[in-house]
Fold these 2 entries.
Entry 1:
Amino acid sequence: MANKIEMNLSTKELEEIEKQLRCPTGENGVEIANNMNVSNLSMTLASIELLKLKRNERILEIGHGNCGHLKFILEEAPELSYVGLEISETMQKEAKRINANHRADFLLYDGHTIPFDENSFNKVISVNTLYFWNDAIGFLKEIERVLQVDGVFILTFALKSFMQKLPFVKSEFNLYNEPELRELISSSNLEIDTITHKKERAQSKSGEIVNREFLIARIIKRA
């Protein structure tokens, strides 16, 4: 059945999936964001756990999608301050709607410059956005800039060895395995604390059941 779904998708439909994954827009964007929230939840929860959140900390999430997972973040510690950044206006609106009962700020930005002062956040998290960083080195330095000394950055993504097999992954994606990640981090003053590799069964955005391989990097800003 899964293979049949994949085969029935046209080139145009696969291109639409790729476009929507980069920047969800309109009704299709809302639908694909709902699917992402479900299919990526285990990745997100594992990433949240590694943040090791503490009382009163300020957390930044880059590319929050519809942020159906916010309650799990806020349950980790009391009196947390959460800020989410998105390039998608559709996702910003959805996140505000879904989380109307939670205290959080959802902001739009240009995908390049993080609109906060230096040392603004104790923790930063980003799940499945690395593929879409046009200037990965420049954007990593932006994350370093807004993160406090000894602050933690959790970066989670599916591995290149897995992603390149998916039918909708084309020119919009920049793919990474662990060596490419280590090279990227070495261009900054950030330091990798731990790298965790995980595998799971998941339904891809084109409908097939796949064995997804992903990586969670726990990264520290040193003085």
Entry 2:
Amino acid sequence: MKAGMKVGIVCPYSWDVPGGVKQHVDDLTQALMAQGHEVSVIAPASDDDELPPYVTGAGRAVPVPYNGSVARMSFGFISAARVRRWVRTGGFDVLHIHEPLIPSLGVLACWAAKGPIVATFHASFTRSRAIAVAEPLLRSALEKLSGRIAVSDAARKSLVEQFGGDTVLIPNGVTVGRYTEAEPLDGWGPDGSTIGFLGRMDEERKGLPILLEAFKLLAAERPDLKLLIAGPGDAKDVYDKVPKAFRDRVTVLGMVSEANKIRAYHSVDVFCAPNTRGESFGIVLAEAMASGATVLASDIPAFRRVLGEGQAGALFANGDPASLAREAAALLDAPERRAKLAEEALVAVMKYDWSTVARDVVRVYETVTAGGAGRVEEDL
């Protein structure tokens, strides 16, 4: 293995907004540095953001609708100038761009640089008018890639169908050791009657309304049942969806720190991921699995795969509150089954530990830099 590589990583989404791709970039950076590599990241961020020493800000991000969500991206003259300067002064052995198909820093970096470039594709997508219109520009960026990684079969399939070419499958990672030990939040269990949720509360595809409907079905028959919710969004809107008789059994934490997020996983008996679509992996599942939580998830393809078709966590019919309620009740009534699923989850999640995933990524770096390909330079 080539030691001490100098790697430049491009994050497309704002560094100060939680999200799966941003977390992936940060965790990959930490894992690469732990393995002896030198890493610099560039990401959308304003000048006054408090950034880690390895992150360079590329200008303030703006909200852009993307893949059923709203992402904060940078794409403009200021960002382009900062990307070019970062590439010119970086002296990178390899440039690693995340999500190069979206209008953010990845496309700018592809245009600005020459030399070994690897790209990771996180999202699955379908052909759209926007992609068709932008295809000539996207192809001009993709043609400069030396290697391509997809985090899921769905992401790889959509990329190959749309643009052709070969793509390596390397899943998302999770730093398992970060999650295994933590104290529950003050006043919380697990106590045999707590369901948890983590995600954007106001994003429909994350499925919180489905969980709230299931909670209504369960709460009348289970006076001890509680629901713990964490993530960005409007807490009042959540409480308004819960009947008054049950509101005192719902707690909305809002945005939480990384430490309290881990404590939240350790505070529940069942962690529920009711996401309805648009997930290529499911990092919250891997985090919950690493925390030793019992997972209940919708049966979308990405979640079925991560949970081993139900061996490492329970599944319910996607979009069906009654199915969710039945499966949650069955889990809450079976502590031995919960313990078995949690045990299986801890074993299953180890293949996603960043120590393993990062080594696979480095093998791609080594492939594209083999044979004296030269360092990354600005494409003048």
